[in-house]
């Protein structure tokens, strides 16, 4: 069914007002559309006058219908074949979710009332919800339906969608594609532990890795050097950021995809699972108007997540909070966040100097990597700012050593230091099974007395933790939050 003349006029007027089509182009499209019987928007696409993304946005507004991206949405065989191919083709629509009560349908033309009625009748008594999707994506899935859905598991790009979908559903943090001589092993990291998901053949992998490079803007022809990029996808109502890293190996390129579910938002401190003592200690640390507060720990220990929660805790309309990150992982309303790469800033040190001109009260520095960044952050904290930052070190005590190794002296950083906090994520034991994670912690608060003694003696061994990992782990074990096997996995054979 074609759009009504009044809708065509409104559609053409909207396209003209937004500078997407000229009056002459609208006239050409209208004449061509009447001859072909195709949709106005699809005719404009065929003539090369309009982009598919622009068409989708306009139709979404005109019909008040939500857009769904099918590019990375995995649709299983049962869902895809829940409608007859002839009906799906006639209506240019595809089901992407089906349960006992509801059906979600992606349709190319939300103005085709006959198609909508036909689909509704097919799924009686289920309630049908319609979404608009790119016609090109629907047609690709219709081709698979035409083959009776036999190729769903064999199509490499759909298989890639399935892997990403399953990883997101399992709340995995990473996906690893690891080539061997004949096959590629796929593993996902759940709660800090890698587990095998499936193996795929070389032919499928060639198409999959090309797709991954394309969407993350990597060089497809480069196979011998490491590359990194990222892309954002929309998956089953979730906004997902994928950070894609490649590295050459003897059997080809290893790929690692880090997954960030942006739709989940930033958790509060309470939601992160800290103990009551930890919660009060952290609240005290961020109550200071100025000074330097460091979170240390290895990659994957939850440092950045905790920092975001701290910012959320102190966020207020009465203060100016700015962050400097590489890259920005989660967006927080009311906070100005700068991405090092996107802003073209060469280093964290340059970024700190730049945002100091923006009169911040609180600053987050994604990572202190060198002496210049450390010195610049310290200077910012000494001029009335609260500076929160991460540092790669195993423990708070090692954090002090790390600052010294960077070339700083005790008198450079001790006066501004509020505290150093370290954490590890340990799997929680529920009814004999591991389920989610919680933090175990170690931290040092730098009281005025400790600062005085430290500067007077120069002996860093006098810095004793207010709470140690050993204390934290003993508490977790005594409350049956986890078991000794999990503690050993996280800390190895250390004296915990």
What does this structure look like?
- By secondary structure, the chain is an alpha/beta fold.
- It folds into 4 domains: 5-63; 77-146, 2-Layer Sandwich (GMP Synthetase, Chain A, domain 3); 156-263, Beta-Lactamase (2-Layer Sandwich), CATH 3.30.450.90; 265-491, Rossmann fold, CATH 3.40.50.
- Helix content is 39%, strand content 25%.
- It has 19 helices and 16 strands.
- The strands form 3 sheets. A 7-stranded mixed β-sheet has the order 12-11-13-14-10-15-16, with helices on both faces. Strands 6-5-4-9-8-7 form a 6-stranded antiparallel β-sheet, covered by helices on one side.
- Helix 6 (85-91) runs antiparallel to helix 7 (113-122) and helix 9 crosses helix 10 (202-215).
- The longest helix is centred in the first third of the chain and has 14 residues, at 23-36.
- 35% of the residues are buried.
- The model has no long low-confidence stretch (mean pLDDT 89).
